[in-house]
Every structure is written in C-alpha cells, then in structure tokens.
Design goal:
By secondary structure, this protein is an alpha/beta fold. It has three domains: 4-86, Orthogonal Bundle (Arc Repressor Mutant, subunit A); 105-113 and 349-445, Alpha-Beta Complex (Aspartate Aminotransferase, domain 1), CATH 3.90.1150.10; 120-344, Type I PLP-dependent aspartate aminotransferase-like (Major domain) (Aspartate Aminotransferase, domain 2), CATH 3.40.640.10. Helix content is 40%, strand content 14%. The chain has 15 helices and 15 strands. The chain has helices at 4-11, 20-36, 49-56, 60-72, 121-125, 141-153, 167-178, 193-201, 218-227, 248-258, 314-326, 333-344, 348-372, 392-401, 429-445, and strands at residues 76-78, 84-86, 105-106, 160-164, 184-189, 205-212, 215-216, 231-234, 265-270, 291-296, 308-312, 384-388, 404-405, 407-408, 419-423. The strands form four sheets. Strands 4-11-10-9-8-5-6-7 form an eight-stranded mixed beta sheet, sandwiched between helices. Helix 3 crosses helix 4 and helix 13 (348-372) runs parallel beside helix 15 (429-445). It is globular. Bound molecules: pyridoxal-5'-phosphate. Pyridoxal-5'-phosphate binds next to helix 7.
Amino acid sequence: MANEYSKALVFRQVQASQPVMSKASELAKEIEQQIRVGDLTAGDRLPAVRELAESRNLAPNTVASVYRTLADRGLVRGAGRKGTFVAGAPPIRRPVSDHVSAGLQDLATGNPDSRLLPDLTASLSMVGSHSAMYGAPQILPELSDWFVQWFENDEIPIGGIGLASGSLDGIERILAARTRPGDKVGVEDPGYASIFDLLRAARLQPVPLQIDSEGITPESLLDATSVGLDALIVTPRAHNPTGAAFTKQRAEELTAIVERHPSMLVIEDDHAAHVAGVDYFSVVSEATARWAVVRSAAKSLGPDLRVAGLVGDVTTIDRVMGRQALGAGWVSHILQRVVVGLVSAPEIDSMFSDVADQYQTRRQALTASLSEFGIEATGRSGLNVWVPVDDEATVVAGMQRHGYAIRAGARYRIVSEPGVRITTASSHPETLTAVAETLAGVLSAGGQTRSG
Ligand SMILES: Cc1ncc(COP(=O)(O)O)c(C=O)c1O
C-alpha cells in the first residue's frame, strides 16, 4: 500500500501549462528527493501510473516514462501488476557541500581548528623520494608499533591490527566483513549522520539508541538487545553531534549488557582520539567474539590524513585487510610516513594535550554561558555542543540573522528530539560567550529550548 508520502505525490498538483518534459523531470526529481531524504523508503509503493497521471494532469505515458527512468537508475523497481516500489538500496549521491555563506561565522561544519593542527612541513620532508612497491606490507611497522602502544595504553586487547582510510572507511569495511543486508545495527540517536547513511547504503537496519551526556543509556541498550541486535556502533568520546562521552561507570554498565550478547558485533568509533579531552573507556568485553576499535588521525593530525588504525578480533581484522588488499590494496605509504613523522616528534603528546585543553575551554565557555541563561547544553568532549530546542529551523535562521552559521539537528536524528549542533572547535572562548548570549536572545524570541 502507498504510504502517506506517496499519497502526497498523488495530490500535489503540477501547473497544466508547464511543458511535458519539464513536468516529467520535475516529477522524477520530486520522487528522487523524497527517496533521498527518506520520506519514501525501501518497499514503499509508488502510486499507480493512471492515478498519478490523473492527479498531476499528465499523460499516463509521461508518468510511465518517469518510472522507467527511475528504474533504470536503480531508484525504484517495477513488479508487474503489483506496481512500482522504492528499491532496497538507492544509489547514494555525492553529498551536498557543507558550504557556509560568506559573512557568517562558521559554527556549523564540525571541523577541527586548522590552527591547532600540526605543521606538516617537517614530516613531509621525511617521506622520502621512493614509492612503496607491490608486495610492501599493508601497514608500516613503525606505524603499527605506534598504534599498538596506544591501544595497549588504553587497555584495549589486540587480536589483529589493520589500517583504513579514516574512521568511516574502517567502519564500512568492518560492517562489510561482518554483517549481512537486513541486520539490525544499534546506533546512537542523535548520532553521526554519515553512519546512518552508511547503514542505509549497506542495506542494514539502524536501531536508534537513546543517549544522554554520558553516551548510550543502559536502559535503551537493554531494550534493543532484548529484541535482538546483530551489531552495535558506539562513539565512546567526542560524540557527534552531542559532545557526549562515556564515564567509567557508564562504560561498565554497558559492558555488562554487551557481554550477555557475545555474538553481537561491537564497533567503537574513536574518531577524535587524542584531542577528545577525556579518557577512553571501551565497552568491549572479554566475551565479545566480534569487535573492532577504530582510531582516526583526522581530528588530531588533520582530516586530510586519511589514516585510521583498527584493532579487533583476528577474524574481523583479517577479513577487513584481506578485502582491502583486493581493491585499494593499502593506505598509501606516503600518508603513513607522514603520520609516522608527526607522531614521532618529541613534543607530540604535549601538543595533543594542549589542543584537547583548548577544545575543552571552548566547549565549556559555551555551555557555562548558556547555563547562566538557564539553557542546558551538552558537550563533555570533542568539537561540538548540542542544544535541545523545539524548532530547529527557527533557531538556525535566527542565529544566521546575527551572523552565525550553526547546524540544525535534523540530519543527526532518527526518532530523538530536536536540537542544534554548535561547533565550538575554532572559536575563541569570548566569542562563544557572545554566541551564548545571542542564542539565548533567539530562543526567548521564538524557538524555546525544551530544557529551560
Ligand atoms: C562520530 C564520527 N565518526 C567518524 C567521523 C569521520 O572520521 P574520519 O574522517 O576519520 O572518517 C566523524 C567526523 O566528524 C565523526 O564525527
């Protein structure tokens, strides 16, 4: 049966005077847009050709040709007399750029502060002038040693070790190695939008888990695991968009639940790693048979250094690295050598801890000022602060009028309540105090917070 969105397709009228070609392409664009934003999802039936043609004042042939074009592109599939259905895994398009309009202060894009990233010059000069050859190891021994030491410092057991082109690449490869289409994957809600998109692309089913400032709540994990989860993706610190991070106690409570489900795949995403500003607590239990921790260089060394270390159980990591060998082959040794150069610098640890402190000062400047206005916001770790609001669009537009670009929470949510994400990473604490004052004004003028 057509869902309510496809019914909306039937009833929205197109001006009869428009030329046929433009009416057809407009209809195609409209359907594609609804699939892309998730208003129409896999298995939804599109309206019957005649029905849609009649309501849109179009010839049935025009509608039929739109459906054929969409089917050719893999967005829908025809099932004969039964109708036309949204296909299971629509092709994913290039993401829309995160452009922030000129003149606005960028508190939206979630980037690390470029001024706090290490200078690459010295490290680039150490790369050398010879290419690695086929047959070279997938991970440089020096880099592998550095990752091993770091994982060991955080008491993360090491089964196998691997390397990927960033956190998301690692997560995608781990999911490909260990899940099947249709599997249920627990994700934080709010959570990182690209993870939701990755799951959709892999035909996996996201199961939203509630979070608070300490990460996933034990109650929501209990509920989800009692119904059945095949996999779980967690962000132990620098949670995006909320800035949540596990406390030791929360991690222990979650571990106790995880260990009751030894065959559930557990993936931990440590994307901000050294600059997250809080300790790392894992929920992987000794009983966990399938697991991996992914640690990216993107936030501490720079997003363009597409390098993330992976550890996990031997089978998972072997599969990931075996599959990588078939396609990309390895993460370029040029990049690996740059990372080795950077992390071998004697001052690197103190640099990481200074940067983590600066990010913390910035987050706290905003959350403390907001709290003076009675506005509760979260941001214990990482680059962002999350403010619950009733009406995201009004608040984003209000801040824009005052010269600030912030991000509406919609793309980070499945069923959780609305909010806005404010990236604090690149702003001076004084600026963030002013941002808090502006936000308080915007909220009292219209888009009230839910908390204060
Ligand atoms: C939670 C989370 N995971 C992964 C990433 C992407 O990391 P990478 O660039 O290493 O793929 C981000 C980027 O902000 C993120 O917020």
